[in-house]
Sequence to fold (235 residues):
Amino acid sequence: MTTIISALQAVKQRIASAALQAERVPRDIHLLAVSKTFPAEAVREAFQAGQTAFGESYVQEAVDKISSLSDLPLEWHFIGPLQSNKTRLVAEHFSWVHSVDRVKIADRLSAARPSELPPLQICLEINISGEASKSGVAPHELEALATHVNALPRLKLRGLMAIPVATDDTALQKQQFRRVRELLDNLNRKNFQLDTLSIGMSNDLESAVAEGATIVRVGSAIFGVRQAHKNTGLR
Ligand SMILES: *Cc1c(COP(=O)(O)O)cnc(C)c1O
Fold:
């Protein structure tokens, strides 16, 4: 388990070096530790090393983990595909959702967000590959969705998230991330006040930091190789 602590240190070092390279301030880049498929004890270990923000992709697994860790001051981010019958659980148990890609899901999250909690912090997931099989809103539908979400009372629109096509070609990684940043800049020119770019994972966080990431979502580089999830398979 001490490997989680040293892996976390190594990831923070990668973020710091990438920030330096990009002439950015390291503390502007937040590390989300993606704990999906890993047990609560792994999260506890990461917390002891100073990590407080965790990302999960499978609702039931996450809700069980969140309740068994309720003694710790953790911030939970939902980053996986979201079905409308699971929106209530997500609205009740998470602080952030990175994967909103349609009006119906946004409406349901807002309606189900408990009034005693602060607004749910939202990123819209962009489909940058253009493949119909991938989740995410198409770029030409983004502004309409952002306008809709901005008007919902219990959601706070913060920015954009994307999962690019996996590649080891750093030029291609950066090109895909740049496209997401340009979409964020476009919205901000139209008076949306968005401060969050959720891009970058274990294999491409340097490229993401170079292109302006404010949240990197890192799983395997911290917790190790994942086994396939029982319901949905690896994502
Ligand atoms: C699993 C997952 C990650 C973490 O991926 P790693 O390659 O393990 O760092 C990040 N973002 C999303 C949306 C994921 O589903």
User: Anything to note?
Assistant: The CA atoms of residues 143 and 190 lie 9 Å apart. Strands lie at 30-34, 53-56, 75-78, 96-100, 120-126, 155-162, 196-198, 215-218. The chain has nine helices and eight strands. The two ends are 24 Å apart (CA to CA).
